[in-house]
Amino acid sequence: MSDRTTPAAPRPSAPGITLPLVLAIALLLPVAVLFTQVWRDVDGDRTTAARERDGVAYLQALWPLTSALADAQSAVVTGRQVARESLDRAVGQANSADDRWGEALRTRDRWATIRTKIDALPQRPGGSVPETVSAYQEVTDLLLALYGKVQDSSGMARDPEEDSAMLQDVSARDLPAALISAGRLADAVQLAAARPAAEQLSAVTELTAAGLATFQPANDAVTDLQAAIDSTENTNLGGNLLSRLDAYQRAMGGLAGATTLPGLPGAAATGQTRGARVALPDAAKVATARETAQRAAADLGTIVLAELDSLIRDRADHTGGRRWLALGAAALAVLLVAAVVTAAVLAARRRAARERIAAVAAAAGLVDPAPREEDRPVAGGPPTGLPGADQRRWEPLDWVEPVPVGPGSNAHPAPAAAVRDNQPARWGR
């Protein structure tokens, strides 16, 4: 039985795998850094978009309350009953919005103050009209400040896109201010008609200031909406806004015409005639124009907020596409690195298999084994790796066994030269 054993398969050589691994790591590190940066930016954009949409939803809940407060103030000034059901319904919508998003938008304290003051508002005329008007104006001023707080806390005020930045400015600043101011202008006309003749001139000054406070934000809203329509890439934005924008402009034009002051008499204008009455706008026409303008403003504000939410949602969806693109690029890089490492490992294994086959063949005597390092012949010396007798044959000897020279002579060690000289005679050819 042969005592030969099959040699174990050699392991893949380290140098053949180390270099591909180093290259793979060198490729993956910058890819990982870029992927992390892109992923962080995408998450930030999605978080910003989600917070802005929360702000839009909060503003959508404030619009009915704004219209209800303007109507309630006008009802009290004109001596009518306040429609408490619509006001309570609007308060409930705003309260639900604050319960849901008030913590994130940091509006809890402001809304709690507004709701307390709304509950304390008079529901019917009876007390001092100036005090009643002052109470309503305080609440509406706080409401306009709440609009600004939502705009700032939700990040809408820092929107990078021009079209959405214009829309949020209109919905959170211009239109609410114009709607509230239109109600105050109509109330100022109603109150001026009831003043004594001696106070008519001061009433004219107040009406002029109220008109400026009404039409300035309205003009800003129209300008911003036109800029948003001109700058947007959304083809649906212009079509959805233009019709309501035209209706709002017509309504504000009607309000401006109804509140235009007639020419003042010369004596009244110079103050030379005390007690002369000043021609004031028709309060009934102003009230009708106010209702039309407020209704148009509410419709325009609703569609502006809806379009703003659509633009922000589309931007959030676009960030989702960037996320999938980053994932695809990272997966492709990993696949390429895996392919390089796999090719290197397979090449090393094929080389190890060839070495194993060669070792097995040499052990079976099918091929001459490669000489070991210690068996390689030294220049100028005898061959190595030979059997014992052959090895001793080629060993350099100074003296060998005694060789008899003649009869009865003593054996003396013969030098190596003598041995070499005797070899032919001793062994023959």
Automatic annotation (TrEMBL):
The keyword Transmembrane applies. Residues 370-429 are annotated as: Disordered. Keywords: Membrane, Transmembrane, Transmembrane helix. It comes from the Bacteria. The chain crosses the membrane at residues 324-348. This is Nitrate/nitrite sensing protein domain-containing protein. It comes from Plantactinospora siamensis.
